[in-house]
Design goal:
The chain has 326 residues and is an alpha+beta fold. It contains six helices and 20 strands. Among the domains are: 122 residues, no CATH class; 49 residues, no CATH class. The strands form eight sheets. The protein has a four-stranded mixed sheet. A three-stranded antiparallel sheet has the order 15-17-18, with no helix packed on it. A three-stranded antiparallel sheet has the order 16-20-19, with helices on one face. A hairpin with a 2-residue loop joins strand 7 and strand 8. The protein is flat. The termini are far apart. The structure holds 2-acetamido-2-deoxy-beta-D-glucopyranose (2 copies). The site of one 2-acetamido-2-deoxy-beta-D-glucopyranose has 6 residues, from loops. Keywords: Signal. InterPro entries: Diff-Dev_Assoc_Protein. It comes from Paramecium tetraurelia.
C-alpha cells in the first residue's frame, strides 16, 4: 500500500514537473472490457481522463471524436480497399478495375484515358491518359510520374537519396541524407536531437544540434499517450531513427521496379514482406515515437495501432493468402 502511494506521489510530481499545457493534462487508463462496446469514455468533465477498452478484432475505434459525455462505440472496420493493377487477386470483384485475369488485377494500358494513377497498369502513371513512367533526368511534376527508383526534384526525375551535400534540391528524398536546409535550399545532414526519450514541457526542451554540435533549433514537444500524461520530443532528420528509414528503403529499391507506381513503398507482391514490414515499422516509429512511448496494451490497440499493429496477424494472414495464390 505504501509502495503504491509513493508511486502515485512520484507520478503526481512528475506530471506537474512536465505538464505540457498544449496537451490539456490528458491521461489514459485501461478499463475493463465492457458489455456496451464503448472503447473510449471521457469520464471527467474537463476531458482529462480517458478510459479505454479495446474493440473486438473485426471492429475499430474512431477515438479522435471522443469528448466528455460523448463515448465512442466500437464500429465496423471500413471495407477493404480494392486491389491495384499488378497485384494478386482471387476474383474480379477484388480488383479496382473489376478484372482479375490469371490471378492478377488488370489495369488500363498505354494511352487509355484515366482519372488517377491507381487505374493505370504497372509501369504507367496517369496524366489524362496512362503514360509510361518517366526516366532519370526527364521532366516531371510529382514523384509517381518517375520510375520507381526516382523522385521528382526541381522538375526532373532524380535517383532516390543520391545528391551530395550543398547541391540544390526541393525534394528531400533526392538528397543523400534525406534533408534540405531551408535557409539555402541545399542538401545537408539533418539536425539531430540533443536528448531523446525524456519527458518535455515545451518545444524549447527539445534541442536540435547541427552536424557541428551547434544549436540548430527545436523539435516539437508532442503529447504522448500514457498513464502519466507525459509529452516527448519529436525526432529529427539527423537522428539514427530517420537514417534507418533511408537504409531500409534501399532494400525495397532492389525489387520495387515491378510494383505499381503508388505501391513503390509497398505493400507490393514483388517485395519481400519482411522488408516491407521493417520499412513500415521504421517509418511509423520515426513519426509516432512520442506517442508510442510507454503505451499500455489498450493504448497500443486503440490509439497507436498504426505502429503496434504493423506485424500483427493481418499481415501474417495476407502472407498466407499470397502463398496460397502462388
Ligand atoms: C463513462 O464514465 C462515467 C464516469 O465513470 C460513467 O458514469 C459512465 O457510465 C460511463 N459511460 C459509459 C457509456 O460507459
Ligand atoms: C547552406 O547552409 C548550410 C547550413 O547553414 C551550410 O553548411 C552550407 O555550407 C550552405 N551551402 C551553400 C551551398 O550555401
Amino acid at each position: 500500500m505504501i509502495k503504491e502511494l509513493l508511486l502515485l506521489l512520484y507520478f503526481i510530481i512528475l506530471v506537474y514537473a512536465f505538464a505540457n499545457t498544449k496537451c490539456g493534462g490528458k491521461r489514459y487508463k485501461c478499463g475493463d472490457e465492457n458489455q456496451d462496446k464503448v472503447c473510449v469514455n471521457v469520464s471527467e468533465y474537463r476531458g482529462k481522463v480517458h478510459e479505454l477498452s479495446p474493440c473486438a478484432d473485426d471492429k475499430t475505434c474512431l477515438w479522435q471524436d471522443a469528448a466528455y459525455q460523448k463515448p465512442i462505440y466500437c464500429t465496423d472496420k471500413p471495407a477493404k480497399d480494392k486491389i491495384l493493377p499488378g497485384e494478386a487477386c482471387s476474383g474480379d470483384s477484388d480488383c479496382l478495375s473489376n478484372s482479375c485475369i490469371g490471378g492478377i488485377c488488370l489495369g488500363l494500358k498505354l494511352n487509355q484515358q484515366c482519372t488517377g494513377h491507381q487505374y493505370c497498369d504497372v509501369g504507367y502513371y496517369c496524366d489524362t491518359y496512362c503514360k509510361e513512367q518517366v526516366q532519370f533526368e526527364q521532366s516531371c511534376s510529382n514523384d509517381y510520374q518517375c520510375t520507381n527508383n526516382c523522385v521528382c526534384n526541381l522538375g526532373k526525375c532524380a535517383y532516390y537519396y543520391s545528391l551530395e551535400n550543398n547541391i540544390k534540391a526541393d525534394n528531400p528524398k533526392s538528397c543523400y541524407y534525406g534533408y534540405i536546409n531551408p535557409t539555402n535550399g541545399t542538401c545537408q545532414n539533418g539536425p539531430h536531437s540533443l536528448t531523446k526519450s525524456k519527458p518535455c514541457e515545451t518545444d524549447t526542451d527539445c534541442i536540435l544540434l547541427d552536424s557541428n554540435e551547434k544549436l540548430y533549433g527545436y523539435s516539437e514537444c508532442q503529447c504522448g499517450f500514457n498513464a502519466g500524461g507525459f509529452s516527448y520530443c519529436s525526432l529529427a532528420e539527423g537522428d539514427p531513427e530517420y537514417l534507418k528509414i533511408l537504409e531500409l528503403f534501399q532494400w525495397l529499391l532492389q525489387v520495387n521496379q515491378y510494383c505499381h507506381t503508388i505501391l513503390r513503398y509497398g505493400p507490393c507482391s514483388s517485395l519481400y514482406l519482411d522488408e516491407y514490414i521493417d520499412y513500415q515499422k521504421a517509418v511509423k516509429f520515426y513519426e509516432l515515437q512520442s506517442q508510442i512511448m510507454f503505451n499500455d496494451e489498450c493504448i497500443q490497440q486503440i490509439y497507436t495501432d498504426d505502429y503496434w499493429g504493423i506485424n500483427s496477424n493481418r499481415l501474417f494472414i495476407l502472407l498466407i493468402i499470397l502463398l496460397l495464390l502462388q
